[in-house]
Amino acid sequence: MVGEDGAATPEAAQPPADPSPGSGGGGYDGKCVFCRISRREEPGTALLPCESEGLVCFRDIRPGARHHYLVVPIEHMGNCKTLKKEHIPLVEKMMEAGKNILQQNNFTDLNDIRMGFHWPPFCSISHLHLHVLAPASQLGFLSRMIYRINSYWFITVTFHLLEWSLDSMD
Ligand SMILES: [Zn+2]
Ligand SMILES: [Zn+2]
């Protein structure tokens, strides 16, 4: 939820949307497109089967690869800059869901995938989302630029997890 770590993110300081009846509690921002998608309020974006509780998957609206999915927590939470160590299990769950969605779509070479977060401000949507792209070896030129491993604007997950574990050691 935004309130808990709001101090670190001026962007997240928008007034909370009035909770719509029956939306199942907090973490919903009616102005956020990913909140609406995850609650099936955007007819243009179909949710893909995703067995992970609390997460949804759907196709990126502007695919950068043959397979390009987004894994999104249903509860609104800020972008990857607001992630903390305690979010590692969530991120791992998101990665797991990303692999599952690839396998469900008959992509099984898990060495040829790219998963990561866009580092603000190179991120158009502040709701946390994991990009899942495959095959990584066939990314087009533009996609290679945008989703380049550990570029300033695209932080691949394993790198980031490593950073977190180092953080937690001191
Ligand atoms: Zn949201
Ligand atoms: Zn993004």
List the helices and strands and how they pair.
Layout: H1 2-5, H2 33-38, E1 55-59, E2 67-73, H3 88-104, E3 114-118, E4 130-134, H4 141-146, E5 154-156, H5 157-169
Antiparallel strand pairs: 1-2, 2-4, 3-4, 3-5
Residues 118, 123, 129, 131 line the site of one zinc ion.
- Give the topology string: H per helix, E per strand: HHEEHEEHEH
Mean pLDDT: 80
CATH topology heading? HIT family, subunit A
Ends apart, CA distance between termini:
27 Å
State the domain count. 1
The parts where pLDDT drops under 50 for at least 5 residues are 1-25
Put simply, the count of helices is 5
Give the spatial strand order of the biggest sheet.
1-2-4-3-5
Taking all Cα atoms into account, the compactness measure Rg is: 16 Å
User: Main β-sheet, in a few words?
Assistant: 5 strands, antiparallel
Give me the CATH superfamily.
Answer: HIT-like
Helix content: 25-40%
Structural class: alpha+beta
Strand percent estimate? 5-15%
